[in-house]
Design goal:
The complex is a heterodimer. In chain A, helix 1 (about 15-30) runs antiparallel to helix 2. Chain A is mainly alpha-helical. Helices cover about 50% and strands about 0% of the residues of chain A. Chain B has one domain (about 5-395): Up-down Bundle (Sodium/glucose cotransporter). Chain B contains 23 helices and no strands. Chain B is globular, with a radius of gyration of 22 Å. The chains are: A mainly alpha, B mainly alpha.
């Protein structure tokens, strides 16, 4: 074990981390009631899935895209 | 050869492959290195990590419980799809921070990290014990699933006790010999197999019984209005319950020590890649739910008995199935249960040794720790096996309570990372209150206030107590000797 044993650095949030945090909050809000009430029904059924399920799938994909963009920004062109 | 015998042969063939892969994965690595056994020298790759983390979701729960929920509770099952991304995204923030600290300071477990911040043995031991109890509960569920699948798919040839013993015995052998690397590599094979089987069977069941998913959902909606919605007449779950169960799963996910600990088994960059690719698992779960939805208008709940057995029930009673397909489904279900069981067994052995035994016997050598971990694999395995096969009423409630209590680790863990004033007294008090409330509402209370999930009730109280006590009883200053350790 290294000798330094001060408190664990609580370090500031980087910009990337902030965007990820906001992404998580957004996802938590849209999948929760009352917002989820917007999609809480069967019709329309598109490509076999009811709206209630599409809502979850699409927001999950949107969050994934957001994270991918954050990642690409963090590691663009040989950074690190 | 009867379908049951073909299934038996296929399942045994699959088990042989799982064993060989597990054993090969650990070959050529040091059998005495603590870091290798616990975190694979911090060097696991992306694909392996992805399956290792995913194996937890695709457990016996997904294969048996997921369709069971869809079958008996309708739209409530959608939360299973929803919490995948919600549970994983925070890892993008905390994972890299933990990986950096872990490498610098030699952490192998959640307890190592918590102890370094709070300097409290008590806190680490309490968290360790709760985690081990929760792991045992989790394992018992997997083993019950394995035993049942083996029994049904071989049409009764293999009794419950033998099925669980064979499948889990193999898990124990490769986890003992190869540590986390063996669990990870066998999860790749198991994960691939169960994904294929889940999709094939999910889509095929829908096609056979309904023609298409759209027709299936329309038929369900026509026959049982409200079943495919939340909080309406005919729904099985209210809006508050749905929201809080989703949040508790999302927040609690990374607090499982076997997942949290994987922050120490790879690099910062790979952690981020795993998080980005992980929500694919949410999509993979959809056909699994189809299996249960397809049965809603076709099978009466009374005939099945336990909704979790809807998949085996469909396979043996409703679907016309060739012997080969039958066996393949058996192997897929085994793979799902085993890929969770290996990671959990490994996690339990590491947590027990590092976070319970080591604080009590600080002088224990690295080599002794590795051997204690191996012993713990067998010990934990034996307890879970006993509980799954024999069943002990009095323990069941206790373990279920521990299982629900995992989310209560969140304030202490996030506090250590993000809040300088977080103190050991605050963390211990918060945890105690959170766990107590969780137990009370999970096991004894008639109904939860406002229908809120007990984990969230506990979490709110936990957080308040944690913050207030941390402010009142600040962390003590470190003495120079401590800082020099």
């Amino acid at each position: 074990m290294p000798k330094s044993s001060s408190d664990i650095p609580t370090g500031r949030w980087t910009q990337a981390e902030k965007v990820v945090g906001i992404t998580w909050l957004t996802l938590a809000v849209v999948l929760s009631f009352p917002v989820y009430a917007v999609a809480n029904r069967v019709e329309p059924i598109v490509l076999g899935l009811p709206l209630a399920l599409w809502w979850i799938v699409l927001w999950t994909l949107a969050a994934t895209v957001a994270l991918f963009l954050v990642y690409r920004r963090e590691y663009r062109k040989g950074a690190r | 050869m009867s379908a049951g015998n073909t299934a038996l042969v296929l399942m045994l063939g699959y088990l042989a492959v799982a064993l060989v892969v597990g054993l090969l994965a650990g070959r050529g690595r040091s059998k005495l290195s603590l870091s290798e056994y616990a975190v694979a020298e911090r060097g696991l790759g992306l694909v392996v990590m992805w399956f290792l983390m995913g194996g937890t979701i695709f457990s016996a729960f997904a294969f048996l419980g997921g369709p069971g929920w869809a079958f008996s509770r309708g739209a409530a099952a959608f939360y299973i799809v929803g919490y995948v991304a919600l549970g994983m995204i925070p890892w993008y923030i905390i994972g890299p921070r933990l990986a950096r600290l872990g490498k610098e300071r030699g952490y192998l477990t959640m307890g190592d990290f918590v102890r370094d911040h709070y300097r409290s043995k008590t806190l680490v031991i309490v968290m360790g014990l709760v985690a081990v109890a929760a792991f045992i509960q989790y394992l018992t569920l997997q083993l019950t699933g394995v035993a049942y699948v083996f029994n049904v798919m071989t049409q009764g040839t293999v009794p419950l006790w033998a099925g669980a013993l064979i499948a889990y015995g193999i898990v124990i052998v490769y986890v003992v010999t190869g540590g986390v690397r063996a669990a990870a590599w066998s999860d790749v094979i198991q994960g691939a197999l169960m994904l294929i089987v889940a999709w094939v069977i999910g889509l095929w069941v829908v096609d056979y019984l309904h023609g298409s998913p759209g027709e299936m959902f329309r038929a369900i909606d026509a026959e049982r209005p409200g079943f495919l919605a939340i909080g309406e007449t005919g729904s099985t779950m209210g809006a508050v319950e749905f929201t809080t169960i989703l949040l508790v799963s999302g927040i609690g996910f990374l607090m499982w020590p076997h997942l949290f600990t994987k922050s120490f088994s790879t690099t910062e960059r790979r952690i981020k890649q795993v998080v980005i690719s992980y929500p694919l698992f949410a999509l993979f779960l959809i056909p699994v739910l189809f299996i249960g939805f397809a049965a809603v208008t076709q099978v009466s709940e009374a005939d099945v008995g336990n909704p979790d057995q809807i998949l085996p029930y469909l396979v043996s009673n409703v679907l016309p199935m060739g012997a080969f397909a039958f066996g393949l489904i058996g192997a897929g279900a085994l793979a799902a249960a085993m890929s969770s069981a290996d990671a959990i067994t490994h996690g339990a052995s590491v947590t027990f040794t590092r976070d319970v035994v080591r604080p009590l016997r600080p002088a224990i050598s690295e080599r002794a720790q590795v051997w204690t971990m191996r012993g713990a694999v067998i010990g934990v395995g034996a307890v879970a096996y006993y509980l799954a096969i024999v069943g002990v009423e009095s323990l069941v409630g206790l373990l279920a309570g521990a299982y629900g209590a995992i989310v209560q680790f969140a304030p202490a863990v996030y506090g250590a990372l993000f809040w300088r004033r977080a103190s050991a007294a605050g963390a211990i008090a918060g945890l105690a209150v959170g766990i107590a409330i969780n137990f009370y509402y999970q096991l004894w209370a008639e109904a939860n206030p406002l229908d809120i999930h007990e984990g969230i009730l506990g979490l709110i109280a936990n957080l308040v107590v944690f913050v207030v006590v941390s402010l009142l009883v600040p962390a003590r200053q470190r003495s120079p000797e401590e800082s020099a350790v």
